[in-house]
């Protein structure tokens, strides 16, 4: 079994081809891929922007509330808002679970 996680950023689903009912944008390869795939069309993120959402998908940890005071989650980066910190090395993520 192969698993592909396709995440679009700033692309409306009605602009992705026939799978979502659009006949005027031609996406033959995407349509063929989706035809033989399991498609989750009711997946909604709990927050924005994209980076914290991807982190939540890969770790299963909610973006908010996010305990950024935990020592293993601290960073010296400029961006210090919840969900933008690096994933701690000891945190299990989706790729490890699927091994």
Give a brief description.
With 99 residues, the protein is mainly α. It contains three helices and no strands.
Distinctive features:
mainly alpha, 99 residues, 22% helix
What class would the helix/strand composition place it in? mainly alpha
Low-confidence spans: pLDDT under 50, at least 5 residues?
none
Q: Oligomeric status of the shown chains?
A: single chain
Structure annotation, total helices: 3
Strand content: under 5%
How helix-rich are the residues, as a percent range? 10-25%
One letter per element, helices H and strands E, the order comes to: HHH
Estimate the global geometry from the Cα principal axes. globular
What integer is the average pLDDT?
Answer: 76
Rg computed from alpha carbons, rounded to a whole number of angstroms: 17 Å
Task: Describe this entry's structure for a reader.
This protein is mainly α and 99 residues long. It has 2 domains: 31 residues, no CATH class; 48 residues, no CATH class. The protein is 22% helix and 0% strand. It has 3 helices and no strands. The longest helix is centred in the middle third of the chain and has 10 residues. It starts with 27 loop residues before the first helix and ends with a helix. The model has no long low-confidence stretch (mean pLDDT 76).
